[in-house]
Amino acid sequence: MYEQSYLLLANWPARFCCMYVSSPGSAPIRLFIIDAQPLIAAALYHLFAANRPFEVVGTGGHVDASRLRATRPDVVVLCQDHGSTGLCDMIEACRSAVPTAKVCVIACHLHPEILPRVMQAGADGFTVKDADPSELLEAVVHIHGGGTYIDARMGACLPVSSNSVRRVRTLNALSARETEVLKLIADGYSNREISIALSLSEKTIKNHISRIFSKLHITARTQAVIHAIKTGIA
User: Is 73 exposed, middle or buried (0-12, 13-18, 19+ CB in 10 A)?
Assistant: First the structure.
């Protein structure tokens, strides 16, 4: 399927291959790549196939629910340059087809204005096609592990307290559980109410909140609420 594309990619720099290597016993991260441009789809296929722990289980030019259900990917790499409405519809279609899969959006250009809507639609990550390949590999690993990834250049969209940490990096991203806690904080829940809603102890909730404050470089619940609103979490 990709013979011609592989010829085009044969002379790529060596750094595009074997940039991320997991331990031999690691289970593969199953990927489904969606991109309307065959050459870009082939390039992404080549990048992920050349690195562990990734296994590309399918590619396509659009969201095909039956193929997604059949291949059961862990992560859908959604590489499209639609407006926020079209892109959000595609994210929701992926979520509907494979509810357990994570979704990593790769846009053609930086679109700060659509970031909150895309993340609210269910994306677990947002980056751009000119990102460094090694960062993309790390982003997908992080997303697969339950975290949230936002391209560092989108950091200006997020309310952080120091210019030295304005770039949003993988290690600063909130986990899925931390995002749940943040949403409940924004909804006005107390620690006790959050613990009841999530069936967790109050001590665990306090630990989650402490990590949220540390990652977002904030010190008060009001700042957490502002962050949640600006990023579309609330």
Answer: buried
pLDDT in tens, 87-109: 888 999 999 999 999 999 998 77
Mean pLDDT lowest for which of 27-41, 96-110, 117-131, 199-213? 117-131
Alpha-carbon span 79 to 76, nearest angstrom:
9
Q: Would you say the pTM of this structure is higher than 0.70?
A: no
Instruction: Produce one character per residue of 155-167: b if its CB has 16 or more CB atoms within 10 Å, e if not.
Output: bebbbbeeeeeeb
CATH class of this structure's domain 176-230: mainly alpha
Q: How far apart are CA 134 and CA 152, in angstroms?
A: 13
Does 3.40.50.2300 match the CATH number of domain 3-166? Answer: yes
